């Protein structure tokens, strides 16, 4: 880069004072300072963007390595699962080829589930409260404390 020392800066200032003049020199110096500040901020922004892109590339590489490791683990798990499944099927085939046990046989005439004819989603009618009271059906919810108080055994005196 440009090597600017104190002597070179003094020479540039003297030339600027002679060329520009003492009236306009402060305004020009302010403008030059502003422009240099903007240029420095722009350079810093470019450096930050380059650093971000480098970090993003590193993160992508790390993501790729993690994905390949996950794929390897998944393939090993699938391989182990297929081995276990194959062993289980071999054992089941060997068990099926053995003499059938009468305890394990399911009777062929077991009834199948039949859907009830009544539509349980529709309320057909209310059960009378006297019928509920007679059969001990609860009509009101009890809190925990009320339930404990109601069903607590009575003390014998």
From TrEMBL:
It is a single-pass membrane protein. It is found in: Cell membrane; Membrane. This is Sec-independent protein translocase protein TatB. Its main location: membrane. GO terms for molecular function: protein transmembrane transporter activity. Part of the twin-arginine translocation (Tat) system that transports large folded proteins containing a characteristic twin-arginine motif in their signal peptide across membranes. Together with TatC, TatB is part of a receptor directly interacting with Tat signal peptides. TatB may form an oligomeric binding site that transiently accommodates folded Tat precursor proteins before their translocation. The Tat system comprises two distinct complexes: a TatABC complex, containing multiple copies of TatA, TatB and TatC subunits, and a separate TatA complex, containing only TatA subunits. Substrates initially bind to the TatABC complex, which probably triggers association of the separate TatA complex to form the active translocon. HAMAP family: TatB. One of its GO terms (cellular component) is TAT protein transport complex. InterPro entries: TatA/B/E (IPR003369), TatB (IPR018448). The gene is tatB. Keywords: Cell inner membrane, Cell membrane, Membrane, Protein transport, Translocation, Transmembrane, Transmembrane helix, Transport. Belongs to the TatB family. It comes from Ramlibacter aurantiacus. NCBIfam families: tatB (TIGR01410). It comes from the Bacteria. GO terms for biological process: protein transport by the Tat complex.
């Amino acid at each position: 880069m440009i090597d600017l020392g104190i002597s070179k800066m003094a020479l540039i200032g003297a030339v600027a004072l002679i060329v520009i003049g003492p009236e306009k020199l402060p305004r020009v110096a302010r403008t030059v300072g502003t422009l240099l500040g903007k240029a420095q901020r722009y350079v810093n922004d470019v450096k930050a963007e380059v650093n971000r892109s480098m970090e993003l590339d590193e993160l992508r590489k790390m993501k790729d390595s993690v994905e390949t490791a996950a794929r390897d683990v998944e393939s090993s798990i699938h391989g182990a699962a297929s081995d276990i499944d194959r062993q289980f099927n071999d054992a089941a085939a060997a068990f099926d080829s053995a003499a059938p046990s009468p305890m394990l046989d399911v009777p062929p005439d077991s009834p199948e589930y039949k859907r009830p004819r009544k539509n349980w989603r529709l309320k057909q009618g209310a059960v009378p409260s006297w019928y509920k009271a007679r059969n001990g059906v609860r009509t009101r919810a009890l809190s925990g404390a009320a339930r404990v108080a109601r069903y607590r055994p009575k003390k014998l005196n």
